[in-house]
Every structure is written in structure tokens, then in C-alpha cells.
Amino acid sequence: MAISFVRIDDRVIHGQLITRWAKELPCDGIVAIDDEVAADPLLSSVMKGAIQDTKVWLFTVVQAIEKLPKVIASDKQYFVIGKSPITLRRLVEAGIDLNNRNQKINVGPMSARAQTITIGPNQSVNHAETEAFDFLSERGHRIEFRLVPDASHFSWLEAKKKLK
């Protein structure tokens, strides 16, 4: 298993990922998946430039479905980052195994937007994201909301109580 960490973060790639999470978990490279970011050359360049000394790939969901099996078969350790739970749901529906050495899907910032409900610090979800989290949870993925390694955390089941 070459995936060491799976995260949902609406910023996709940022320095906190390397300064905090990569110090806690092994990481030889980062695979970031988002259709909008991967299609924007300027944004892709800025995100790749934000991380020094670590290889970064930015894929669309379709590209990720094609390339992740090779990543998973690798001897190196990779972070897989999706901008939303909907992205990860699409990967799982396509047959991609998101099991990882961290044994959970970590959720970082999901900013408040129109028609979202706040469930934690800097973490808000809309109806489609709620369905995606339910989908991932029903397939055995443990989902943990935690911004940084030493912060408090809560599970998807605990978060769902705030939605009622």
C-alpha cells in the first residue's frame, strides 16, 4: 500500500500540508485531485510552487482514476488530496482503493459557502457532500475531521448529529 494519507481540503495544496502532516506521516510525493485546479495552468503552477522538495502531481478525477493504481502499487509513500468528499466518492465508485496507512480519511478545511451547515472549525458541508461522506462511511472508511495533527478531532458520525 503506497498511500500513506488521504485528505479532503478545499485549499487542495498548501504549506501546512508539508509543515504539519508530512512530519507526522511518511510522504515521498503528493497526488492532488481536482478538476478545476488541474485545468487551470496558473493555479496548478502556484500550488506546485507552494511545496518545495516534494514531488506534486495535479490530476483531474479522470486522470486520477487512470494513474492511481500505479501510485498504489509503488514502493514509495504518497498523500492523496481531494478538494471535496465528492471527488473521493467518484474515485471509490471507479474502483480506486483509498485504504491507507493512516487508516482513515482526514478532513481539513471545508469553508462555509451558500447552503452549507457548519459542523466544525472551518468545516462546513452541503447536501451533496453529506451524501458523499455517507457513501464513503458506508464503504468502511473512517472519516476524521482534524485540521492539523495535534488538534482536537471528531468523526463523521459525530458531525452528522450537528446536521439535524
Notable features of this structure?
kinase activity, two-stranded antiparallel sheet, PTS_IIB_sorbose-sp, seven-stranded mixed sheet, transport, Fructose Permease, about 20% strand, single chain, about 160 residues, alpha/beta, PTS N-acetylgalactosamine transporter subunit IID, 9 strands
Topology:
Layout: E1 3-8, H1 15-24, E2 29-33, H2 35-39, H3 41-50, E3 55-59, H4 61-73, E4 78-82, H5 85-93, E5 105-107, E6 117-120, E7 123-125, H6 127-138, E8 143-145, E9 154-155, H7 156-161
Parallel strand pairs: 1-4, 1-5, 2-3, 2-4, 5-8
Antiparallel strand pairs: 6-7, 8-9
Helix pairs in contact: 5-6
Structure characterization notes:
- One of its GO terms (molecular function) is kinase activity.
- The protein has helices at 15-24, 35-39, 41-50, 61-73, 85-93, 127-138, 156-161, and strands at residues 3-8, 29-33, 55-59, 78-82, 105-107, 117-120, 123-125, 143-145, 154-155.
- The chain is of the alpha/beta class.
- It has a single domain (3-161), classed as Fructose Permease (3-Layer(aba) Sandwich), CATH 3.40.35.10.
- The strands form 2 sheets. Strands 3-2-4-1-5-8-9 form a 7-stranded mixed beta sheet. A two-stranded antiparallel sheet has the order 6-7.
- Helix 5 packs across helix 6.
- The radius of gyration is 15 Å and the shape is globular.
- The model has no long low-confidence stretch (mean pLDDT 92).
